[in-house]
Amino acid sequence: MTELAIYDMDRTITRVATYTPFLLHAARRRAPWRLLLVPFVILSMLAYVLKLIDRAKLKEINHALLLGRHVAPEELRLVIDSFAERTVAHNIHPGALTQIAADRAAGRRLVMATASYRLYSEAIADRLGFDDCMATNSIIGLDGRIRAKIDGENNYGPAKLRMVQSWMAAEGLDRAQCRVRFYSDHASDAPVMEWSDEPFAVNAHDRLRKLATTRGWPIVDWG
């Protein structure tokens, strides 16, 4: 039996979300003039709140504004490394580190499954000792440059479960031969929680807390 411990990242492992902080960090380091575009970032967030655009389009717009429409991977390497180091140093729940260490000691395969971009989440996962990282991918052009466009799905909600299942198939993991525990802070991950053997509501907001109480899922606080 293969034991998997799958973790959401933003607000589960981290204290605060990472996507906008990463874009602002990258803009400050690479092209500070892009910070002048922050009012347009705020407008795009308002458009999302008003349901004029979805989460995927929100990500693509903000990526284009603060990173640029296309960028060479080597231009982001130092930015990604510095952001990952900063995140691990200042934005990780203490309880997350304890649980990651416990799952590692128990022989579980540590997997991060996040809707955040692979651009930087993989670097954070590596520093935390994860074995694998599933995340939202960016389109890479024929010139090798990263585009401000999502490759496939934004791995949020039901799409995250599809991402996990596709990853398992690619890894040759038979669901019937795996025991899966899953940690998340948000009710949008309910499809993965329902599918897993051991779901944990971590740092849960009200909606997930109510759902976890109804389903009998453990509620834990890693703060």
Contiguous uncertain segments of 5+ residues: none
Total individual domains: 1
Main β-sheet: number of strands, strand sense, barrel status? 8 strands, mixed
Question: Strand pairing plus helix content: what structural class?
Answer: alpha/beta
Helix count? Answer: 9
Percentage of residues in DSSP E strands: 15-25%
- How many beta strands in the DSSP annotation? 8
What is the helix fraction of residues, given as a range? 40-55%
Shape: globular
Kindly report the CATH topology.
Rossmann fold
CATH architecture: 3-Layer(aba) Sandwich
Tell me, rounded to a whole number, the average pLDDT: 94
**CATH homologous superfamily classification:** HAD superfamily/HAD-like
Question: What top-tier CATH class fits best?
Answer: Alpha Beta
Helix/strand order: EHHHEHHEHEEHEHEHE
Q: What keywords describe this structure?
A:
21% strand, globular, alpha/beta, Rossmann fold
Give an account of the 3D structure.
This protein has 223 residues and is α/β, with parallel strands linked by helices. The protein has a single domain (2-220), classed as Rossmann fold, CATH 3.40.50.1000. Helices cover 48% and strands 21% of the residues. It contains nine helices and eight strands. It has an eight-stranded mixed sheet, sandwiched between helices. Helix 8 links the parallel strand 6 and strand 7 (198-202). Helix 2 (38-49) runs antiparallel to helix 3 and helix 4 packs across helix 6 (118-128). The radius of gyration is 18 Å and the shape is globular. The two termini are 32 Å apart. The mean pLDDT is 94.
